Amino acid sequence: MAPISNLLPSGSWWLYASLLIAFWFSVIAIRRRYFHPLSHVPGPFLWSISNLPILYHNGIREGQLMHVLPKLHAKYGPVLRIAPNEVHLSDPSHYSEIYSSGYKYPKDPDFYAAMEGPIRAPVLLTVKSADEHRVRRGALNPFFSRKSVLELEEGIIKSKTDKLCGLIGSCLYSSSPEVEGKKRRKIFDIHNAIRAYAIDIITSYAYGSSNCWNQLDLEQLTDAEDFQESIRTVQVLFPWFQTFPVLMTMFGWIPDWLTVKVFPPFKKWIESLETVRATVTRVRKEIENGVSPERRTIFHELIDPLPLDDNEEVEGKESKFRPKKLSDIVVFSDAVNVTGAGADTTGSTIGRAIFEVISSEEIYGKLRKELRDVFPEKEDINLRALEKLPYLTGVIKEALRLNPGLPGHLPRIIPSPGATFNSIPLPPGTSISMSAWMMHHDPIAFGSNPTVFDPERWIPHSKNDEERIRMQERCMVPFGKGSRNCLGQALAMAELYSTVGNIFWRFGDLVIEEGMTREDLGLVELFLGYHPRGARKLRVLRREGHV
Q: Where is heme bound in this sequence (predicted)?
């Protein structure tokens, strides 16, 4: 049989092929734009026919979608079509309906599959079944509860906070070396120190003190930065995996040694994976041999979960309310996700609080006075008392508002029979999303200055202020809401109160290194929130005149 090229005019077969492909894509574009169930939803033409605009802004431009969406909403309205089958909302009143109504709106599997990686491990973050998520989350909730956090405040949080403050003090408050007869001002790398602190907290808390990574003990704190950069590199790939799932499968075929060679930042990530994998194996053997741990870790909760209250095994089968015993790969993946999510997000928010306090003499002075008035001695400081301080609470809420851990869109699926938002009906099966970043900058809740760091906005001075603050609280979603909110919320809040409270009780003359600007602390959406690539790192020194 003659090849197709012989049946076409000489030299023009490629033209016919190109026309055929163009025709095919034109048909798809016309159908998606004008004959799709979402064709009535406002939005830019290219966004309505392809997922490529999201890939461009989050993949190629590295996380800029969260900054583009407010501009599109300003043009097209509160209901915006951002992909062939995804709609984004800007009206805060809809957030609870989508994210706080139990399991009514399930997670979009196409979006979250990238978090499972090439192994497709059904980690807690991506579990689709409401029953399975309820049981697995229920097994871990007590481990990360406020009660558990308070019980370990002295042994983990306070000791790590003291170590962090000790590093600051030994660097900035010891005698300075002389360079050419002049005292050289010393600079402390607070950026990497608070990330090392966050890593040590989450690994001590989740893995047990004997398995803490002890990043704060390292002579060079850049090891923590290497770990965070490796996590960032992994998440940069998410938009590509979401748009082209086959890439994720192909990525899984690459051996670790080649991955490190092609993508050097992956080295620290792969090393950490091996550490977690070895811990899973060791803990499982200990459980099988009947070894009782000094304190149950996240590995014990996942490998050998305790039954939930009043739900025992029936006829040799596990109750659906009893956590399932998970495979090593799922235990491994859940533990890795806890580490990655709990490290840089908290460290980044602490950094934002430190920067904003030091940058404003007024905020610095008010916070110092509140802390010193309540705690005459350093030993008096404790978490419960810190949480009652109104100005410190305002500082922390502002840091969370302007630096949420998950700033971008988090798609859910509209259930049957569909839903209506701002008078626009949407069919079942539509992917629907909202963003913490837009919620936290809502002009109705936060006024004409939503980008300004203002702790006073959380302190009521009149009845009108109380109503305004209630509105602000409804728009505050740094940890999400509902049954799938952040598992480690209580631990993250404890870290924030402990670090910010202790640092500013102890040190009253810190300044930011020259050249650092607020833009360096901006956020980009790589699922987790990160600072822009190339941003200056937060470093502090003592005020001029102190050496």
A: 486
Whether residue 471 contacts residue 444, with contact meaning beta carbons closer than 8 Å, is answered with yes
CA angle 91, 400, 134 (to 5 degrees): 75
Nearest CA to 117 out of 221, 234, 264 is that of 234
User: What is the per-residue burial (b if ≥16 Cβ within 10 Å, else e) of 403-420?
Assistant: bbbbbbbbbbbbeeeebe
Cα→Cα distances 257→96, 231, 246, Å: 45, 17, 21
Of the pLDDT bands very low, low, confident and very high (cuts 50, 70, 90), residue 316 is very low
Q: Which residues touch 476 (CB under 8 Å, ≥6 apart)?
A: 397, 400, 401, 439, 440
Question: Is 171 a known ligand-binding residue?
Answer: no
pLDDT at 290: 87
Structure confidence by residue, pLDDT tens digits, 410-440: 999 999 999 999 999 999 999 999 999 999 9
Q: Are strands 424-426 and 419-421 parallel, antiparallel or unpaired?
A: antiparallel
Copy the structure tokens of residue 120: 């497709």
- DSSP assignment of 245-279: HHHHHHHHTS-HHHHHHH-TTHHHHHHHHHHHHHH
Minimal CA–CA distance to 356: which of 486, 518, 493?
518
pTM of the model: 0.90
> Element (H or E) spanning 511, and its range?
strand 510-512
Helix (H) or strand (E) holding 542: strand 540-542
Residue type, 388: K
Q: What is the helix (H) or strand (E) element at residue 354, kind and residue range? A: helix 328-359
| Cross-strand partners of 413 | 431
Average of pLDDT values for 318-343? 70
pLDDT band at 545 (very low <50, low <70, confident <90, very high): low
Q: Report the Cα 70 to chain-centroid distance in Å.
A: 20
